[in-house]
């Protein structure tokens, strides 16, 4: 479904790392048709207009790492995926990669096959992200350790064949047996390979990025930290051009000051992600992530056994707000981290994440505190 002509004017447009006051954007046929500033919008053809009255206007948010919401887990397929996406859409996310937790290779093949089928009817879905099973048991986080395994060529082929070109991202521990071969094989197949849930040291992580990995999965979490004599995967990612660093900006996974340091270390390469599990948008209580019991208390999700952080209850509008307010990141850079950078990280930088002519007419109107006032996807107002 695409919308007709619509024009949003008198906005503070945040796009491409800049802020433009008194800006306007016109949509036509589901795409951005024109962008300008001042009163010139009055001469543009439009069926309907929205007066932004000085509100922030950004491209639609893109979440490349999330697992669900409102009690629904993306691992459970069609209806659950739709329910979770509905929640995140209300908070500005117009496109998302469906992240799947560790399961058997056969189960994961079925799940990515299901996501591929859903893409035909739900344009919000960009494809799948496999967060496992090729992960280090010593940095398993909220993944069932008995299902973790080194990658084999047969496993790789099974997953690629099942996804039919829709596998957008896979998280791999490159130091495992077969790990570097997996990095190369998935990257050669056009999949964005992420280093994560890993015990890799600086040299091993750097080698993985040089071999084709292009994302760091939720920086600092489930990996060695940053030490002055052992800089680890975060430093390897920050120093490698073209590598995107995910960060869960909920104030729990990473301290706001460290978030600020990350943005300063890798300008234009930060992607705010939710890593949201089923409890996002829901009350505290008991949930399940994959096969593991999770307790949510005070909005923080932890494994019932062991207490490890188990995803988040975050939405991207809140991540944006916290990054600006608590981590003191400039608005333009924080917005880029929920729009342009994540879109590019999964191969959609040519048509998503910007409000420039030819790009999808996905947009979010935000109040001064980054609360969502309206959302458009393909030119249609959906919130």
Automatic annotation (TrEMBL):
EC nos: 3.5.1.25
UniProt keyword Hydrolase, yes or no: yes
UniProt entry keywords in alphabetical sequence: Carbohydrate metabolism, Hydrolase, Metal-binding
InterPro entries cross-referenced by the UniProt entry: Amidohydro-rel, GlcNAc_6-P_deAcase, Metal-dep_hydrolase_composite, Metal_Hydrolase
Residue ranges of domain Amidohydrolase-related in the record: 57-382
CDD domains registered for this protein in UniProt: NagA
GO MF, one example: N-acetylglucosamine-6-phosphate deacetylase activity
Entry keyword annotation includes Transferase: no
Top-level class of the enzyme under EC nomenclature: hydrolase
Family: Belongs to the metallo-dependent hydrolases superfamily. NagA family.
Protein's name according to its UniProt entry: N-acetylglucosamine-6-phosphate deacetylase
């Amino acid at each position: 479904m695409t919308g007709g002509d619509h024009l949003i004017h008198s906005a503070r447009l945040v796009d491409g790392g800049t802020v433009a006051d008194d800006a306007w954007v016109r949509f036509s046929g589901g795409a951005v048709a024109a962008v300008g500033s001042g009163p010139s919008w009055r001469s543009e053809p439009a069926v309907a207009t929205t007066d932004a009255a000085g509100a922030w206007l950004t491209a639609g948010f893109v979440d490349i790492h999330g697992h669900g919401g409102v009690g629904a887990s993306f691992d459970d397929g069609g209806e659950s995926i739709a329910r979770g996406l509905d929640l995140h859409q209300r908070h500005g996310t117009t496109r998302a990669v469906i992240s799947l937790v560790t399961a058997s290779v056969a189960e994961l093949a079925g799940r990515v096959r299901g996501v591929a089928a859903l893409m035909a009817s739900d344009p919000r879905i960009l494809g799948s992200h496999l967060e496992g099973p090729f992960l280090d048991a010593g940095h398993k986080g909220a993944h069932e350790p008995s299902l973790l395994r080194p990658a084999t060529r047969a496993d790789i082929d099974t997953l690629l064949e099942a996804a039919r070109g829709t596998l957008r991202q896979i998280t791999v521990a490159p130091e495992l047996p077969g790990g570097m071969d997996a990095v190369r094989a998935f990257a050669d197949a056009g999949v964005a390979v992420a280093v994560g849930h890993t015990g890799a040291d600086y040299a091993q992580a750097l080698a993985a990025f040089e071999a084709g990995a292009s994302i760091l999965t939720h920086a600092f979490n489930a990996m060695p930290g940053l030490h002055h004599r052992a800089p680890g995967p975060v430093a390897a990612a920050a120093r490698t051009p073209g590598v995107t660093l995910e960060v869960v900006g909920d104030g729990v996974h990473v301290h706001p000051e460290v978030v600020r340091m990350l943005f300063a270390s890798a300008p234009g390469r930060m992607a705010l992600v939710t890593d949201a599990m089923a409890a996002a948008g829901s009350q505290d209580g008991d949930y399940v992530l994959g096969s593991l019991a999770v307790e949510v208390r005070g909005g923080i999700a932890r494994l019932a056994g062991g207490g490890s952080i188990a995803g988040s209850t975050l939405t991207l509008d809140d991540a944006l707000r916290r990054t600006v307010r608590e981590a003191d990141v400039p608005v333009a850079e924080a917005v880029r981290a929920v729009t342009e950078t994540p879109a590019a990280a999964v191969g959609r930088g040519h048509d998503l994440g910007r409000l420039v002519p030819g790009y999808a007419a996905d947009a979010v109107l935000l109040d001064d505190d980054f609360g969502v006032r309206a959302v458009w996807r393909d030119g249609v107002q959906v919130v």
